[in-house]
UniProtKB/TrEMBL annotation:
<feature type="transmembrane region" description="Helical">
    <location>
        <begin position="12"/>
        <end position="32"/>
    </location>
</feature>
<keyword id="KW-1133">Transmembrane helix</keyword>
<feature type="transmembrane region" description="Helical">
    <location>
        <begin position="53"/>
        <end position="75"/>
    </location>
</feature>
<protein>
    <submittedName>
        <fullName>Uncharacterized protein</fullName>
    </submittedName>
</protein>
<keyword id="KW-0472">Membrane</keyword>
<keyword id="KW-0812">Transmembrane</keyword>
<feature type="transmembrane region" description="Helical">
    <location>
        <begin position="102"/>
        <end position="123"/>
    </location>
</feature>
Length: 129
């Protein structure tokens, strides 16, 4: 689904999507790690109560994966340029070459996120062993 949104976008659109994703990631990181309101709100029945139940290693791993997801619109833009830009891109538009660069394929992007989550778990497991 994310590929359908970010495929065929212009540079400015890709940059805006990336900045929005990175901004949300930084806002959640700031709230989780630095917010005084979060530290003293266990009995306020707020969002912070739920976030206190999430272990630090899991939150940090999700934030790293989220930050990497912010690069996907830019990677899709670069993949579009590599696939459809220039003389080789014109030949690809005529379906002579239908290969998309690996970094612009949604399956590989999803695999990167899964690998980050697995590595985060393994680091936590090794540290607590």
């Amino acid at each position: 689904m994310f590929d359908q949104i970010t495929d065929g976008v212009h540079f400015v659109t890709a940059l805006i999507l990336s900045v929005i994703i990175w901004g949300l990631c930084l806002a959640v990181a700031w709230f989780y790690h630095f917010s005084e309101a979060r530290r003293y709100s266990w009995h306020n029945n707020s969002l912070a109560d739920f976030m206190d139940l999430i272990p630090n290693w899991l939150m940090n791993t999700v934030l790293v994966a989220w930050f990497i997801v912010g690069t996907f619109p830019m990677l899709n833009y670069v993949a579009d340029k590599a696939q459809f830009g220039g003389v080789v891109g014109r030949a690809r538009e005529l379906n002579m070459f239908d290969d998309r660069p690996w970094y612009g394929v949604g399956g590989y992007q999803f695999l990167i996120v899964v690998v980050i989550l697995i590595v985060g778990y393994l680091i936590n497991w090794y540290r607590n062993k």
